[in-house]
Specification:
mainly alpha; 0% strand; extended
Length: 96
């Protein structure tokens, strides 16, 4: 908590409320809270929209989208049914 409070003070100094910034309180919650801890679907849509404008070749783009999708899935709560979409290759117990 002390380290988090120190970081919060640094952020408040760097991004003062008087300039329109808001730095939230330090929370000591160990539970997953979707509103606070997850990346929303809207963010992923915006991210893919930005990728559309980058002019990447199809193979590179597919690999990057897959990596971003896997990161998104891994950020979901452990009980989410969507986590079944995570690639298992390289995971103990996986066979090709």
């Amino acid at each position: 908590m002390a380290e988090a409070d120190t970081t919060r003070r640094q952020l408040v100094a760097a991004f003062p409320p008087g300039k329109g910034f808001a730095v939230g309180k330090v929370l000591k919650a160990k539970d997953f809270v979707a509103e606070r801890d997850s990346v929303g679907r809207g963010f992923m849509e915006q991210l893919y929209g930005v990728l559309d404008k980058q002019g990447m070749d199809a193979r590179q783009r597919a690999e990057l989208e897959d990596a971003l999708g896997q990161l998104y899935l891994s950020s979901l709560p452990d009980l989410s049914w969507v986590k079944h979409g995570i690639h298992r290759k390289g995971t103990p117990g996986f066979e090709t």
